[in-house]
Design a protein that fits this description.
Blueprint lengths: L2 H32 L4 E17 L4 E16 L21 H29 L1 E4 L11 H4 L7 E5 L2 E2 L3 H13 L3 E7 L5 E7 L12 H5 L12 E4 L4 H5 L6 E5 L2 E2 L3 H9 L6 E7 L2 E7 L2 E5 L2 E5 L2 E3 L9 E4 L3 H28 L10 H14 L1 H20 L6 H14 L5 H32 L1
Antiparallel strand pairs: 1-2, 3-16, 4-5, 4-6, 6-7, 8-15, 9-10, 9-11, 11-12, 13-14
Helix pairs in contact: 1-2, 1-9, 2-8, 2-10, 2-11, 4-8, 8-10, 9-10
């Protein structure tokens, strides 16, 4: 990976992480202020303070700290120091249980609201996505047994309309986790509407991963377009090699190229290998060398050079622009956020019970990789990535684990029903257990990241 690419990935990761942390802590801060609690410090990061300024009526300390994976809002609290008599009413511990729960829940809920906002922006401005136009299913697969054929377009899943391949994939993942039979409405090439029953009961929970669609037997139909370069991603191997839009690829690593799907097949099969590439520009044949990036996939890796195809005019049957009015976009943004939140919760639960492998857990290295890839693919891809990570952060923080927001909510619920706070001894024990669980979680995630790098 070049220095430029590394800087791009780190920059995209820092922007994503920083913005999500700020939104999360801002939720705590704003609701605390609304409830009358005095905020002493707003910090992005933990540990040694790198930068700090005091601002506002309460002279709140706004800080950036050395360890960036998180942040905190420190509020006035009698349990953490002396409080002046005239400010006792503004201490966090003096607030009602309801107010304390509201302040704690505001952080994760802010992340979920951010996801809704990001999806709303995408839906209002319009998103170019791939339609669920299907290739011929693999023989013996659930899709083949359901009677699905090449050229059929998926219109709905269990009566819920789908417009894009991503929408279809999300709905089928949710249905596969329930091991259910799915009703698909399809449109044949001649316009006829068809009903098909797709049996997902044979899909084990451990097989619900990024390769699910291929296990079901579903794949996108790929038209045989000429091997013309459409767009070149910034900092990609293609840009570094000097490829430009409108270049026609003739040969890669000695393999003659006529159509774009051949470009994809050759590049995917040779991650990290230095390849000679011949192309035609303005009638002149040229040759460069290009090294596809190594992109980790479940069970292996693929190559990618950062180019897209130039679709012939009027021949883009796979693409559809998803655009809604402001009100309709809000409804679809809420639905998308809810479906993704539900899927995240179910996947986490299945990991705890052992139904899904912990290898699906990603750490900071993988997230940085996804951040860089999505940023290079364009603003829409990056916003979608931010929405997904924001949902994951919100859901994670709502888990009933001590030291997380969900753990504090659990304590306050106990206080509400018992009529008195949880004892200091129980709080201290919970903190130790919570820190241990978080440490274990981070260790597993980091191990998965390193394992993907080594195997890739």
């Amino acid at each position: 990976m070049s220095a430029y690419t590394l800087a791009w990935y780190l920059g995209a990761f820092a922007l994503a992480l920083g913005s999500l942390i700020v939104v999360h802590e801002l939720g705590h801060f704003l609701v605390a202020r609304w409830c009358g609690v005095k905020v002493l410090r707003f910090s992005v990061g933990f540990g040694r303070t790198l930068w700090m300024r005091k601002w506002g009526v309460d002279r709140t300390e706004w800080a950036i700290s050395a360890f960036p994976l998180g942040g905190y809002v420190k509020m006035l609290d009698e349990r953490e120091g002396d409080v002046a008599p005239e400010e006792v009413h503004r201490a966090f511990n003096r607030q009602s249980v309801g107010k304390r729960m509201l302040i704690v829940a505001a952080g994760p809920l802010s992340n979920l609201l951010l996801a809704v906002l990001l999806y709303w922006v995408m839906f209002v401005q319009g998103v170019q996505e791939v339609r669920p136009l299907l290739e011929q299913p693999v023989a013996g697969s659930p899709a083949a047994q359901a009677g699905i054929h090449a050229g059929e377009l998926v219109r709905s899943v269990d009566g819920n309309p789908v417009l894009t391949w991503n929408q279809l994939r999300l709905k089928l993942i949710n249905r596969a986790l329930d091991a259910s039979v799915v009703a698909l409405e399809l449109q044949a090439a001649d316009g006829a509407l068809l009903e098909r029953q797709l049996d997902l009961s044979r899909i084990a929970a451990t097989e619900v991963d990024e390769n699910l669609m291929s296990r079901i037997g579903l794949a996108l139909q790929r038209p045989r377009w000429p091997a013309l370069v459409g767009a070149v991603a910034a900092g990609s191997p293609a840009q570094q090699a000097g490829l430009l839009p409108e270049d026609k690829i003739l040969e890669i690593a000695g393999t003659p190229i006529a159509f774009w799907d051949e470009v994809t097949a050759v590049i995917r099969a040779r991650p990290g290998q230095r390849l000679p590439l011949k192309f035609l520009r303005a009638g002149e044949a040229r040759q460069v060398e290009i090294t596809p990036e190594v992109i980790a996939e479940q069970g292996g890796s693929i190559g990618r050079i950062g180019v897209s195809v130039r679709a012939p005019e009027g021949q883009s049957p796979l693409l559809v622009e998803v655009r809604y009015g402001p009100l309709e976009a809000a409804g679809n943004a809420l639905t998308q956020t809810w479906d993704t939140t539900r899927l995240t919760l179910v996947m986490m639960g299945r990991m705890v019970t052992g139904d899904i492998s912990w290898r699906n857990l990603s750490g900071p290295v993988a997230i940085a990789d996804y951040a860089g890839q999505s940023a290079r693919m364009g603003l829409t891809s990056y916003l979608r990535f931010l929405a997904l990570i924001s949902i994951s952060l919100g859901v994670l923080n709502l888990l009933p684990v001590p030291v997380l927001d969900g753990g504090h909510l659990m304590y306050y619920l106990l206080e509400f029903f018992r009529g008195r706070p949880v004892s200091d001894e129980a709080l201290e024990l919970g903190q130790r257990i919570g820190l241990g669980l978080l440490g274990l979680l981070m260790a597993v995630a980091l191990y998965n990241d390193l394992n993907r790098l080594i195997s890739g």
